[in-house]
Each structure stands twice: as C-alpha cells, then as structure tokens.
C-alpha cells in the first residue's frame, strides 16, 4: 500500500439550519485500500459522503486530492475528478434502460451525434458481466428486482472508472451469493489501486473486507483512518456507541394456547403464490424466511388486501375474511405493515414527522365530525416517538431530512400508536445501526410479550433466529413448512436451508402451518 493518501477530508464542518451535522471530521484514504466508514444512523456518515462527492459544500474545512486542495461545486465535478459513489437509496431513472442508466453521465454528451445504442448496450454488458449479472442491457430498470437494481447501481459506478469509490450499504438488498461476488470485485479493484470506502452496519462484512477504518459518533471522529488490524466487533461497537453492545438474545416462549390472529390455508394469489399456509398467534413472533424472490413481500401485500386471493382461506381471529383493501386491513382488522421500502411505501418523505406518525390514526382521532388538530395527533404519537428515541429538531421537521434509522423508527412508531393486533415487519433493520437494531429487536419482543402477533420477514438469518418463536420457510412463492426455533444458529440455519433446497412441491397436503411444526 502506497504511503501517500490519495484523498483527504480535513477538519470538515457542515451545518444545516439548527443542526451541526459534522463537527471537524477527518478522513484519509489510501490507494489500494478498502476503508470502512462506520457509525450509528445520524452519526454523520451520509453527510460526509455527500460532502466528499460534491452534493454538499462543507461549511468549513478542506478536501484534498493527490495533495492538492479541491472544491466540488456539484457531483459531476467529483465524478470528473475520479470520485464515484453508490448510494444506499437507489438513484436510477425508471424510464431508462439498464444501459442508459449505467452510462448516464456520458449518455448523449454530443447532442448533434445520434446515440449508437448497439455500442451503448455492448459497453454496459461488459460491466454487467463483471458482476455476473445476466440481464439484457436494453431492458427497463423497472423490470428488475430490488437486488438487481442495486447491482446496476454498482455497475454504473464501476463504469466511471473511479479512483475513489464510495459504497453506502451496497449489500443491503443482496443475497449472500451476490455479496460474495461483489466482494471479489471490490478486492480486485483494491488490488488494482482503487481506494474504496465501504459503509455497512454488518460488522462481519467489515471484518472480512476492510483494512482501515474511520468511525463517526455524533458528527465527530471516534477514530480517524486507523488500521483495522487487531480490531474486533466489540471494539467497533464501543467506538460507535461509546459503550459495550447490549440487547437481549433469543428466549423460549410458549404461545401454543394463545388464540390465532392470522391463518392462511392453501392460499393462492394473483401474484403467483400457491399452497401457502401459515399461522400467527397472539403474542407470537413468526419468522418468514426465504431468499430474494421467494415471494415474502408479495405475500404481505396479499394479506393486506393489495393483491387478490384467488384460492384458499385467509382467517383473522379464526373467521374467514376477504380483506378488500389496505384501509380495511388497518381500520377494521387492525393489521399494520412496516414496509421494506420505507422511503417509497412506508413514509411520505415530504411530510412532517407528526403527519407520518399520525396517518394510521387520523380517522380514529377525528371523531364523528371529522375535526382533527395537530395537538390531538401530537398527544397520541409523542409517547411512541419518545419511546423509540426518534432524533428530530421538532415534530414539524420534514421526514426526508432525518437519517434512515430515524425514518425507520417513525415507520414503527405509527403502528404502535395505531395499536394493531398483527404487525407485519418487512426487513426491519436493513440499513440500521447496531444500537437501533438491538433496540428494535427488544421492541418487537416487548410487543409480542404484550400480545401483539408479529410476522417478521427478514433475509437476515441471525435476526430471524434471534427473534422468532417459529420460522416458516418460503421458496418460489410457496411455503415449505414451519420449524420450531431452538435459538441455536447453526442447527436452525441448517434446517432452514434444507427446506429451501428441498424442491419437493409443498402445500397444505404436506402439513404446512400448525401441523408442520418440527424439532
């Protein structure tokens, strides 16, 4: 590794109205290095990335590239200087093809010269092959899964041949196999001299990949650009949150005598589900595990009435029902849903914290005459926002201005305020820091202890094993049986993967649901 830094951020301060996001932060990137940038949500990581990539200008401080001071007026200045970024939130243009998105910065650079789409697609195909991504470059990005959209974002950044490449939670939507492929590519880029910045809340990934680390806490350096050699998970956690990691682990609970809140019997849907069976009892956490594309999020949409049930029975409190729409699911059956896509579906980003937290209970609070005041909503939701420690200057703050972790807390708080009987939680801790993740885990346990039925959808197997009483395995839009959780990660992961790899058709005739419990 070369001893000269390729890029430096020196004493960076960034203030917004009423908020000091960064208070004298430093970062030094070496060529041929993978540098972890760690911190809780709200610690300043995203703000620092935006300063480095020209989205924000620093209030004070200096950026240096190859030993010279630089000033990026916009992201294109940073790209031109060889600094690329893959943001946590997708930044693709829906109406454009995969190839057009990958080469967007050079797309149509000469407006008097016709675009050679054959060459554009061929060039894009080369970058897609680097990621082992077998898709047609001419297809619209709207046809891709969330995971594949993320890989296209990475291909786009690679195509810019950046000398410095920042990746903000690049594996959040990827399977373990896709993550392994990405890591091979990142190591190859590192070996060719690229300086990489890797932001992740998955510390096992940081330990496997990164050789240097910078940790932010409350907008300041907890450590600045030091070697990762010898650092353990406990060290990272202590640097990020200022103390040792906490949070309770799995514990055995018996809910067999509790009433069933949700039951699905041999359900098929217009989305392609067939033979789906599961049940969730009051006070029970049922994990729904499957690989990307298994049909879990789509099943949540069916339960909530967004998509039609074409066969089988949905039962709420033991009674067969047909949920007409989301409004009926919320107000009549008291079902709640914390979406995987908190920005696209879970929240209205341009509305206030108060408005977002109060949406599910507006009708309830308005009363017979339809009158609703902010004070009424505030009194109803503030206890839950306080309980979840949502960090916001005020409840009037625009939700888009908050960190991803605080946005996720609001997504949960609104359903706590609504007092739902069944809460479907879809990938609740994607992009969430360790402290908030442990807090949300404890909160889900607390809700279950209080009688709330919880259907937990997660691709994070350690999370499923840490929380669930039972685990229902799903593959190819079918359930593959229910497994009693014993809290042992090794044995549970083996049982789960055995179910997924078993391609024997399954359905209610195979004993899915309550009758399919196994040790």
UniProtKB/TrEMBL annotation:
GO function terms (MF aspect): ATP binding; ATP hydrolysis activity
Can you quote a single GO CC term? plasma membrane
Tell me which SMART domains the record gives: AAA (SM00382)
- Residues forming the ABC transporter domain are 7-243, 250-501
Q: Which SUPFAM superfamilies match?
A: P-loop containing nucleoside triphosphate hydrolases
The membrane topology term of the UniProt record is:
Peripheral membrane protein
Q: A Pfam family matched by this chain, by name?
A: ABC_tran
Task: Provide the protein's localization.
Answer: Cell membrane
Q: Which InterPro entries match?
A: AAA+_ATPase, ABC_carbohydrate_import_ATPase, ABC_transporter-like_ATP-bd, ABC_transporter-like_CS, P-loop_NTPase
From what superkingdom does this record's organism come? Bacteria
Ordered alphabetically, the record's keywords are: ATP-binding, Cell membrane, Membrane, Nucleotide-binding, Repeat, Sugar transport, Translocase, Transport
- Say which family it is in: Belongs to the ABC transporter superfamily.
The name on file for this protein is: Sugar ABC transporter ATP-binding protein
Which species is this record about? Fulvimarina endophytica
């Amino acid at each position: 590794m070369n001893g000269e830094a390729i890029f430096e951020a020196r004493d960076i301060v960034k203030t917004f109205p009423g908020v000091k996001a960064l208070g004298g932060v430093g970062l030094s990137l070496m060529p041929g290095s993978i540098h972890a940038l760690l911190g809780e949500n709200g610690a300043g990581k995203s703000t620092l990335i935006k300063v480095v990539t020209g989205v924000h200008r620093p209030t004070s401080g200096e950026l240096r590239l190859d030993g010279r001071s630089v000033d990026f007026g916009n992201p294109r200045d940073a790209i031109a200087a060889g600094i690329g970024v893959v943001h946590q939130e997708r930044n693709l243009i829906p109406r454009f093809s995969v190839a057009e998105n990958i080469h967007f910065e050079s797309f149509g650079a000469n407006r008097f010269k016709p675009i050679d789409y054959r060459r554009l697609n061929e060039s894009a195909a080369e970058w897609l092959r680097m990621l082992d991504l077998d898709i047609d470059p001419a297809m619209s990005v709207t046809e891709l899964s969330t995971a594949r959209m993320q890989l296209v974002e990475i291909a786009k950044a690679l195509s810019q041949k950046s000398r410095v490449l920042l990746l903000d939670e690049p594996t959040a939507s990827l399977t373990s196999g896709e993550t392994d492929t990405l890591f091979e590519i990142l190591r190859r880029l590192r070996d060719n001299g690229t300086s990489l910045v890797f932001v992740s809340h998955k510390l096992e990934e940081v330990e496997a990949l990164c050789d240097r680390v910078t940790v932010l806490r409350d907008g300041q350096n907890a450590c600045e650009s030091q070697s990762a050699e010898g650092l353990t998970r406990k060290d990272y956690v202590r640097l990020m949150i200022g103390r040792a990691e906490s949070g309770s682990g799995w514990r055995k609970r018996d809910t067999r005598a509790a009433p069933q809140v949700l039951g699905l019997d041999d359900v098929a849907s217009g989305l392609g589900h067939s033979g789906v069976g599961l049940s969730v009892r009051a006070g029970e956490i049922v994990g729904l595990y499957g690989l990307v594309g298994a049909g879990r999020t789509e099943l949540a949409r069916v339960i909530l009435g967004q998509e039609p049930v074409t066969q089988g029975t949905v039962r709420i409190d033991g009674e067969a029902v047909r949920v007409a729409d989301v409004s009926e699911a919320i107000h009549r059956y008291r079902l709640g849903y914390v979406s995987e896509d908190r920005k696209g579906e879970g929240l209205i980003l341009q509305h206030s914290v108060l408005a977002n937290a109060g949406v599910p209970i507006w009708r309830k609070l308005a009363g017979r005459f339809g009158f609703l005041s902010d004070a009424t909503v505030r009194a109803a939701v503030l206890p839950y926002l306080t309980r979840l420690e949502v960090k916001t200057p005020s409840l009037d703050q625009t939700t888009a201005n908050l960190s991803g972790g605080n946005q996720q807390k609001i997504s949960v708080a609104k359903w706590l305020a609504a007092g739902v009987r069944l809460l479907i939680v879809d990938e609740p801790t994607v992009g969430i820091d360790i402290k908030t993740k442990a807090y949300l885990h404890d909160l889900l346990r607390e809700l279950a202890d209080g009688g709330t039925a919880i259907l937990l959808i997660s691709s994070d197997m350690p999370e499923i094993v840490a929380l669930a009483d039972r685990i229902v395995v799903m593959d190819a839009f079918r359930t593959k049986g229910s497994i009693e959780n014993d809290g042992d990660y090794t044995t549970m992961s083996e049982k789960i993967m055995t179910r997924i790899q078993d391609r024997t058709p399954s359905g209610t005739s195979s004993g899915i649901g309550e009758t399919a419990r196994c040790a």
